[in-house]
Amino acid sequence: MDLSFDESSEAAIYLVLSEPRNLRKKNIEIIKEITAKGFTTIVITTNDPYNVLRKDYVKGGINLDNVHFIDAITKYAIGKESEGAVNCTFVNNPSNLTDMGIAVTELLKTINGNKVWVLLDSVNSMLIYISSANLTKFIHFITSKLKILDISGVFLAVEKGIEPSTLMQLESFVDGVVESEG
Predict the structure, then answer these.
(1) Which helix (H) or strand (E) holds 164?
(2) What does the pLDDT profile of the chain (182 residues) look like in tens digits?
């Protein structure tokens, strides 16, 4: 994926644009790259449920010891949390931005002394549940929090799946945009 990071680099926030059919693959590639460097990762998922992502990550050879999930889809889809979930906070639904923000804040408080990355999967799936205006407010809130705390982040989105004015706003919040290869 070639996100530039190591222990000595400053925190950075990226918008990663992917072709729709490669979105899950990009997610796995990014998490694999981040965890391989020893970073703790918080995955905010509004696209795939915790159980699905966990299985994909295991298949991808990712060590899940330092991967934490904030799942905003499972309770919405089945009405309850997944039993036996490890390192996972469940939010009632993808439109509950307040609870999502609180979950991120609380989780960041519990991760001490580690370099952390936050991955949001995906911007497009959030647009199913909330308006573009609310999405940009939430992304601005998250990017501001990450920058203040010197934490890196990745927002995963389907290229050409976001209206141009919303995309311009999102691009203004991040340090770099990584476009899909091929």
Answers:
(1) helix 164-173
(2) 456 555 556 789 999 999 999 999 999 999 999 999 999 999 999 999 999 999 999 999 999 999 999 999 999 999 999 889 999 999 999 999 999 999 999 999 998 767 899 999 999 999 999 999 999 999 999 999 999 999 999 999 998 889 999 999 999 999 999 987 64
DSSP 87: S
Enter the tokens of residue 39. 């970073």
Alpha helices (H) along 20-156: 23-36, 50-59, 74-78, 97-110, 123-129, 132-148
Q: What crossing angle do the helices spanning 132-148 and 164-173 adopt, rounded to 10°?
A: 10
Predicted model pTM: 0.93
DSSP state for residue 91 in the 8-state scheme: -
What is the distance between the alpha carbons of residues 131 and 140, in angstroms, rounded to a whole number? Answer: 14
Four-point Cα dihedral 15, 135, 99, 48, nearest 10: -60
Domains of the chain, CATH where assigned: 13-179 (3.40.50.300)
Element (H, E) at 169: helix 164-173
Backbone angles phi, psi at 118, to 5 degrees: -115, 130
